[in-house]
């Protein structure tokens, strides 16, 4: 039992370090494909943290829902990046100018994807985050405030910067 507890703590620590590392790297990226990949790293660290922090039926079901949402959104994001690359011949977001005026429907869809990723209230990711933060607040208050800062302050600022 002690070994299982140590493995759980190791996974929780590794997930937290991975989240912080990917978040810091994300802030300085200009390649849109790498941004999508780093968002995947963040979500997978979040998922592993959620699974190992309190393994019960509800967290397992929410983790499966999060995996489904992640698979769908990441596929759409990589497809969108491919479309942007075909139009602009670049994945650098400084090179993509006037996209909203040239393609307002695609731009609106990209904004919707960003809102789902951030977890705006009303989206399914919001409810997964709500449960996750209720779960983590019961276990470790320091990690709770660290993850709250990253998810509700740092990452939305990054996405709005884009």
Write up what this structure looks like.
By secondary structure, the chain is an all-alpha fold. The protein contains seven helices and no strands. The protein has helices at residues 2-27, 32-53, 57-88, 99-102, 104-118, 124-139, 141-161. Helix 1 (2-27) runs parallel beside helix 7 and helix 6 packs antiparallel against helix 7. The termini are far apart.
List the SSEs and their pairings.
Layout: H1 2-27, H2 32-53, H3 57-88, H4 99-102, H5 104-118, H6 124-139, H7 141-161
Helix content: over 70%
- Order of SSEs: HHHHHHH
Q: What is the overall shape?
A: elongated
* Estimated structural class: mainly alpha
* Strand elements, count: 0
Radius of gyration from CA coordinates: 17 Å
Q: What's the short version?
A:
By secondary structure, the protein is mostly helical.
What keyword list fits this structure?
mainly alpha; 162 residues; elongated
């Amino acid at each position: 039992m002690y070994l299982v507890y140590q493995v759980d703590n190791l996974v929780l620590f590794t997930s937290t370090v991975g989240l912080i590392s990917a978040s810091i790297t994300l802030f300085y990226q200009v390649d849109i494909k790498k941004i999508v990949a780093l968002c995947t790293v963040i979500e997978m660290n979040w998922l592993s943290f959620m699974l190992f922090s309190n393994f019960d039926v509800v967290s397992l079901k929410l983790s499966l829902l999060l995996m489904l949402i992640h698979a769908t959104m990441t596929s759409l994001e990589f497809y969108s990046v491919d479309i942007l690359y075909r139009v602009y011949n670049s994945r650098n977001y400084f090179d993509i100018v006037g996209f909203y005026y040239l393609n307002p429907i695609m731009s609106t869809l990209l904004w919707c994807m960003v809102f789902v990723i951030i977890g705006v209230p009303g989206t399914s990711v919001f409810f997964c985050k709500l449960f996750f933060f209720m779960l983590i607040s019961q276990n470790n208050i320091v990690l709770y405030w660290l993850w709250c800062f990253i998810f509700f302050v740092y990452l939305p600022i990054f996405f709005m910067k884009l």
